[in-house]
Structure of DUF4352 domain-containing protein:
Amino acid sequence: MKKFFKMGCLGFIVLVAIIIIIGIFASNGDDKSNNANNSTNSAGTVEKKDAAKEKAKKLKKKGEELQVGDVVFKVNKVTTTKEIKDNFLSYSPSADGSVFLVVNVTVKNVGKEMITTDSSFFQLLKGEVEYNPSTLITTKGDYFLYEGINPGLAQTGNVVFEIPEDMKDFVLNVQTGFWGTEQGQIELK
């Protein structure tokens, strides 16, 4: 009788365990199929809408302030020139048929710690094409060259890009820090 009771209890425990395991697999399968359907629907509509809203929210116009993390950027003025004079030095574009696009930007630190900024934190976009700042300008003058900005303070300077002479309507991509984890964009029309 003891053997029968032990085998009956053991059989009952095994049976309960099998039912629990089947229940778990059945519910996971339903969750996965529901999640897959929700993901498809969400990815197709909600995520795209959110991405479009985020991009539209971060895309500002010249003269408007754009906050990216603890930094506020504002494009004050955009000009083109064939020559930049700084103190006793003169710079000309290195390629034929190109000009300098000079973007005057104010960068304000609204955080709690000093930030550093440099012209490499800016990038010019024309569709899928990216332009990096010119490395010809090496004197401090009115140009962003690795500067520290304390909390509550702002710095205004120029970022210079060498571009084809006939191109217009760029977007300035701005970022915080060397890794560019936070970014935003300003139209330069």
In short: The chain has two domains: 2-59, 62-187.
